[in-house]
Design goal:
The protein has about 300 residues and is an all-alpha fold. It has a domain of about 140 residues: Alpha Horseshoe (Serine Threonine Protein Phosphatase 5, Tetratricopeptide repeat), CATH 1.25.40.10. The chain contains nine helices and no strands. The protein starts with a helix and ends with a helix.
């Protein structure tokens, strides 16, 4: 009897359990359906965002291509304009350079002509001196007989000495490297024919020989004599001042050399001597003279 009741109770519990399981399955199916709907929604949203990003990326690429194209066009235009400006500027500058070269040649020719004219004037002065010496020699009394111990021409050049020949011989010996003989001849010329214009040149060449032999004090004195003793018509004034400055620097008198170069720039503010003076100042480590605005415009 008890077994019958237990079997009946089990029979009643089985449908109830099956009914509970069925409800759970339905709940699971409903949750799974909702999950699928959420997945589809997320997929759709993701696809939309990917599509939007793709559109933005394509637009960015298009903008970049347009910018590259515009930059290439701008570069080509700039190059074309530069070429046009080069054509319009180079030709006038080249023409100006040719004119400057032509003017430089003309100035050089004028300078050479002036130098040649000064040389001719010096020769004429020397010839006049020779003529004056010849006249004095003719009018002079006869020399004393040999053995009397008196000089042929006291206080002046020995008889038969020509100023032009003496100067030319001295220059030739200097160029040949016979510095002792050339120096003696230049000093004789200064002593005997100091009133001629070529005496200034003889004094300068003597200074060059002293400088080459490192007799610096004697060289400075010789260049000083060119600057102070002889008139402004002396063609070696600028050379003497330049060589004096270089000799002072070589002798260790840097301040005096710089002072001389500054004074030289005052006398010759432009041209070859100004350039040489500025070069020496730079070598000595001093500030060079800047060009004035007017000079730059020229």
């Amino acid at each position: 009897m008890k077994r019958l009741r237990m079997a009946s109770l089990i029979a009643l519990m089985i449908p109830a359990a099956m009914l509970g399981q069925k409800k759970e399955i339905q709940d699971l199916q409903r949750d799974f359906g909702l999950l699928q709907m959420d997945v589809r929604t997320l997929q759709r949203s993701f696809d939309e965002k990917i599509a939007a990003l793709t559109v933005l990326l394509q637009q960015t690429l298009d903008s970049s291509n347009k910018a590259n194209t515009a930059l290439a066009l701008l570069e080509r235009e700039v190059r074309e304009r530069l070429r046009e400006q080069e054509k319009t500027v180079v030709a006038p500058v080249a023409g100006l350079g040719s004119k400057v070269d032509a003017m430089a040649d003309e100035f050089r020719f004028v300078k050479e002509s002036v130098t040649e004219m000064n040389a001719r004037l010096n020769r004429l002065q020397t010839q006049m001196t020779e003529l004056d010496t010849a006249i004095k020699t003719i009018n002079a009394p006869l020399p004393p007989p040999p053995g009397s111990g008196q000089a042929a021409n006291p206080g002046g050049a020995p008889a038969g000495i020509s100023p032009l020949a003496l100067f030319d011989n001295a220059v030739r010996d200097k160029m040949a490297g016979k510095s002792d003989l050339a120096l003696q001849q230049f000093n004789d010329y200064i002593k005997w024919f100091g009133a001629t214009e070529q005496a200034c040149e003889a004094q300068y060449f003597a200074g060059e020989i002293y400088a080459a032999r490192s007799e610096l004090e004697a060289a400075i004195q010789a260049f000083d004599a060119v600057l102070e003793k002889y008139p402004s018509t002396c063609v070696k004034k600028a050379d003497a001042q330049y060589m004096k400055a270089k000799t002072l620097a070589k002798a260790g008198q840097r301040t005096a050399a710089v002072t001389e170069l500054r004074e030289m720039l005052k006398r010759y503010p432009t041209g070859e001597w100004a350039s040489k003076a500025n070069t020496e100042l730079k070598l000595l480590g001093f500030r060079t003279t800047p060009e004035t605005p007017a000079r730059r415009r020229k």
